[in-house]
C-alpha cells in the first residue's frame, strides 16, 4: 500500500480561515493579528482580559526515549486534541515551534504526521511568524551591545575573560561552537574567545517561554548575566541598558500563534526550547491562554519523559502555577523492539520477545511520572507492521504496572483513531486522582537537586562533579539563586549520559561537565556528558533532499 507523505497530506488539507478557528475559542476577529489566511497572533489585550476565567484541564503528552524507529509524540498530541474534539469536548493543542536546525539536519519537522498534523506545515517548519528570528535578533543585540560597551570605555569594568554570554544562530553549525572575535586591530575591539549556541538554547528563548507578560519579559531580560567584573560580581543586561530594546524586538513574538489541525481544531504553536539542552516546553503564555479558552488543553514536552516531562513538571508547572491532570506516554512497538536489541532493518518482523525485553524503558517512564503524583496512560502509536501479539505484549506489561496502554491509529485515521484514548483521558481527569507536586522543593541545595533528578529519574548511583562546579553552585546559593530549579542538559537517547545505552539501565554515574546560571530564565543549566548546545549537521543532512519542484511546491520537507 502506498501512503502519502506528511507534506502531501498537509498540502491537501481543507483549511478554514483563521478567524473561524479563533471563533471556536471565542477570540474576536479584532484580537487576531493575521499572518496570511491561516495563521494569526492573539493580541496581548485579549489575553489580559481572560485573567478572571477558570482554567481548563491540562494534559501532558510525553514519550519514551527517542529511537531511530520513531515515536510520534507531536503526532499523538495533535491526534489526541482532535480526538477530544471528536467526542464533544472543547479542546485545544499547544505545541512548540520548529527550529530550522533539526529541520535541515536530521530530526525533521515538528508539526505532527500523517492525518494528525498542524497546518500550514511548510510555514511552521520554516519562518512561520518570525518568532525565532526575533529571538535571535534580541539575543544578538545584547551580544553586540556588550562588546560595544567594552569598546567604548568599559564603564562596568567587565573582565573580558569572564564574558558569559554567547551569540546564537537558528541553524546547526559546529564551526561556530568556539570562535575568536574582534580581530582586525584597534578599530574592531579587544580580541577574545567566544562562540555560538543554537537559538533554541538561548536564554532569551527560555525567558520568552516562561514570561507571563511583557513586564515580566523585560524584567527577566534585564536579569540576564552577561559577564563578570574582576571582583567576580555579575554584570546584568540592564547594566548595559539592553533590556528595553530587547523587549521591543520581542513584543510581537510574545503573542502566541494560533493555527489549526487538519480537522480544523485550534492549535497554539509558540516558543521552542530544545528539551535536551533547554527546558523543552512551549510558552507559558500560550498554555495559560489556551487553558482560559478550552476545557481540555493538550500540550507536549520534548524528547523522552526523563527530559521533557521532568522539566515540564519541575520547571514550567512550578514557575507558572500549572496543575496537570494527566500524562500520556507515547510508545511504539517498533521502539520497544529496538530497546530489546532488534536492528532498525529488522523491525518489520514480529518479535514478541524483543518487545518484552524493551518494555522496561517504558516502565521506567511510567514509574517516574507517578513520582510527580500525576496519573499516566500509555498511547501505543500504531505502525502498519505492528502485530496483534506485539501490541498485546505492551498492553500486558503496562497493565502489570497498574496503568493502561491504548492502541492509537491517529496517523492513519486522525481524531477517530484516538477516541478511546480521549475517553480514557476524560475518565482520568474526572476521577480527580491527580495530585501534582515537583519531586524536589525550592529550598533544597542545588547539588542535591541535581542528585535527586539523577537518582530518582535517571536511576544513577552518583553524580560526578569536580570541586570547581560544586563551589560554583555554592557561590550561586550565597548570591540568592539557591531556590532556582535545575535544567539538565543531557542526551535524549538514554537514561544515562551515553546515547548508546538503551533500555532501563541502573547503577550508572552522571558526570557534570559544566553549570550555567540562567538568572533571567530562572534556572541553573547543568551540562552532563558530551551534550552540545550548538549541534552539527549529520553526514547527510535533510537539507540535501529539500527543494522546490517545477510546480513551485516544496519537496523533501518531512
Oligomer status: single chain
Number of discrete helical segments: 19
Average pLDDT works out at: 94
| CATH topology annotation of the largest domain | Rossmann fold
Q: Residue share in helices?
A: 25-40%
Our measurement of the CA-to-CA distance between the termini, rounded to an integer number of angstroms, reads: 19 Å
Radius of gyration: 23 Å
- Overall, the morphology is globular
Q: How would a textbook summarize the main sheet?
A: 12 strands, mixed
Low-confidence stretches: none
Question: If you had to describe this structure to a student in words, what would you say it looks like?
Answer:
It is a single chain. The protein is of the alpha/beta class and 558 residues long. It folds into three domains: 6-130 and 254-431, P-loop containing nucleotide triphosphate hydrolases (Rossmann fold), CATH 3.40.50.300; 132-250, Domain 2, N(10)-formyltetrahydrofolate synthetase (2-Layer Sandwich), CATH 3.30.1510; 446-528, Formyltetrahydrofolate synthetase, domain 3, CATH 3.10.410. The longest helix has 21 residues, at 131-151. It starts with 5 loop residues before the first helix and ends with a strand.
Features:
single chain, 558 residues, globular, Rossmann fold, 19 helices, Formyltetrahydrofolate synthetase, domain 3, 12-stranded mixed β-sheet, alpha/beta, Domain 2, N(10)-formyltetrahydrofolate synthetase, 35% helix
How would you concisely characterize the structure shown here?
With 558 residues, the chain is α/β, with parallel strands linked by helices.
Note the topology.
Layout: H1 6-11, H2 18-24, E1 32-34, E2 40-42, H3 44-48, E3 57-63, H4 73-86, E4 91-95, H5 100-104, E5 112-113, E6 116-119, H6 121-125, H7 131-151, E7 158-163, E8 167-169, E9 179-181, E10 192-194, E11 196-198, H8 203-210, H9 214-222, E12 225-229, E13 234-236, H10 243-250, E14 257-261, E15 266-269, H11 284-293, E16 296-300, H12 305-320, E17 324-331, H13 333-339, H14 352-370, E18 376-381, H15 388-400, E19 405-408, H16 410-413, H17 419-431, H18 446-456, E20 460-464, H19 467-481, E21 486-489, E22 508-518, E23 523-528, E24 547-548, E25 554-555
Parallel strand pairs: 3-16, 3-17, 4-15, 4-16, 8-11, 17-18, 18-19, 20-22, 21-23
Antiparallel strand pairs: 1-2, 2-14, 5-6, 6-14, 7-12, 9-10, 12-13, 14-15, 22-23, 24-25
Amino acid at each position: 500500500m502506498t501512503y502519502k507523505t506528511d507534506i502531501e497530506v498537509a498540502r491537501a488539507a481543507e483549511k478554514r480561515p483563521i478567524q473561524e478557528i479563533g471563533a471556536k475559542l471565542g477570540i474576536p476577529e479584532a484580537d487576531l493579528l493575521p499572518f496570511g489566511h491561516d495563521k494569526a497572533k492573539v493580541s496581548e489585550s485579549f489575553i489580559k482580559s481572560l485573567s478572571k476565567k477558570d482554567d481548563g484541564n491540562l494534559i501532558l503528552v510525553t514519550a519514551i526515549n527517542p529511537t531511530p524507529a520513531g515515536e510520534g509524540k507531536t503526532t499523538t498530541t495533535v491526534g489526541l486534541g482532535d480526538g477530544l474534539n471528536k467526542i464533544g469536548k472543547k479542546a485545544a493543542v499547544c505545541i512548540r515551534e520548529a527550529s530550522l536546525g533539526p529541520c535541515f539536519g536530521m530530526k525533521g519537522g515538528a508539526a505532527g504526521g500523517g492525518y494528525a498534523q498542524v497546518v500550514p506545515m511548510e510555514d511552521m517548519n520554516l519562518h512561520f511568524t518570525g518568532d525565532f528570528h526575533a529571538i535571535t535578533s534580541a539575543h544578538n543585540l545584547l551580544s553586540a551591545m556588550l562588546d560595544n560597551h567594552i569598546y567604548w570605555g568599559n564603564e562596568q569594568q567587565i573582565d573580558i575573560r569572564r564574558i558569559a554570554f554567547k551569540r546564537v544562530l537558528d541553524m546547526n553549525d559546529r564551526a561556530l561552537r568556539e570562535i575568536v572575535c574582534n580581530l582586525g586591530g584597534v578599530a574592531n575591539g579587544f580580541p577574545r574567545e567566544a562562540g555560538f549556541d543554537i537559538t533554541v538554547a538561548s536564554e532569551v528563548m527560555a525567558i520568552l517561554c516562561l514570561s507571563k507578560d511583557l513586564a515580566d519579559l523585560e524584567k527577566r531580560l534585564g536579569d540576564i548575566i552577561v559577564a563578570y567584573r574582576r571582583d567576580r560580581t555579575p554584570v546584568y543586561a540592564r547594566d548595559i541598558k539592553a533590556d528595553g530594546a530587547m523587549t521591543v524586538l520581542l513584543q510581537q513574538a510574545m503573542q502566541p500563534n494560533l493555527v489549526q489541525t487538519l480537522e480544523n481544531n485550534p492549535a497554539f504553536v509558540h516558543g521552542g526550547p530544545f528539551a535536551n539542552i533547554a527546558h523543552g516546553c512551549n510558552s507559558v503564555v500560550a498554555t495559560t491562554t489556551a487553558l482560559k479558552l478550552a476545557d481540555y488543553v493538550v500540550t507536549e514536552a520534548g524528547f523522552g519523559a526523563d527530559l521533557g516531562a521532568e522539566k515540564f513538571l519541575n520547571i514550567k508547572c512550578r514557575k507558572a502555577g500549572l496543575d496537570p491532570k494527566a500524562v500520556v506516554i507515547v510508545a511504539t512497538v517498533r521502539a520497544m523492539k529496538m530497546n530489546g536489541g532488534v536492528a532498525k532493518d529488522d523491525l518489520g518482523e514480529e518479535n514478541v520477545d524483543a518487545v518484552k525485553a524493551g518494555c522496561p524503558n517504558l516502565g521506567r517512564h511510567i514509574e517516574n511520572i507517578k513520582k510527580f503524583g500525576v496519573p499516566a496512560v500509555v498511547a501505543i502509536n500504531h505502525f502498519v507492521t505492528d502485530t496483534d501479539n506485539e501490541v498485546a505484549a505492551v498492553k500486558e506489561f503496562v497493565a502489570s504496572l497498574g496503568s493502561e496502554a491504548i492502541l492509537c491509529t491517529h496517523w492513519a485515521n486522525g481524531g477517530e483513531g484516538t477516541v478511546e484514548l480521549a475517553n480514557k483521558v476524560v475518565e482520568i481527569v474526572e476521577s480527580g486522582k491527580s495530585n501534582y507536586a515537583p519531586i524536589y522543593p525550592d529550598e533544597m541545595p542545588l547539588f542535591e537537586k541535581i542528585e535527586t533528578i539523577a537518582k530518582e529519574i535517571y536511576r544513577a548511583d552518583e553524580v560526578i562533579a569536580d570541586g570547581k562546579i560544586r563551589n560554583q553552585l555554592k557561590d550561586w546559593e550565597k548570591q540568592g539563586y539557591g531556590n532556582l530549579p535545575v535544567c539538565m542538559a543531557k542526551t535524549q537517547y538514554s537514561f544515562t549520559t551515553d546515547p548508546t545505552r538503551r533500555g532501563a539501565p541502573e547503577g550508572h554515574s552522571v558526570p557534570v561537565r559544566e553549570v550555567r546560571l540562567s538568572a533571567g530564565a530562572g534556572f541553573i543549566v547543568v551540562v552532563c556528558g558530551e551534550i552540545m548546545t550548538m549541534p552539527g549537521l549529520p553526514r547527510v543532512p535533510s537539507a540535501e533532499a529539500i527543494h522546490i519542484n517545477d510546480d513551485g511546491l516544496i519537496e523533501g520537507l518531512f
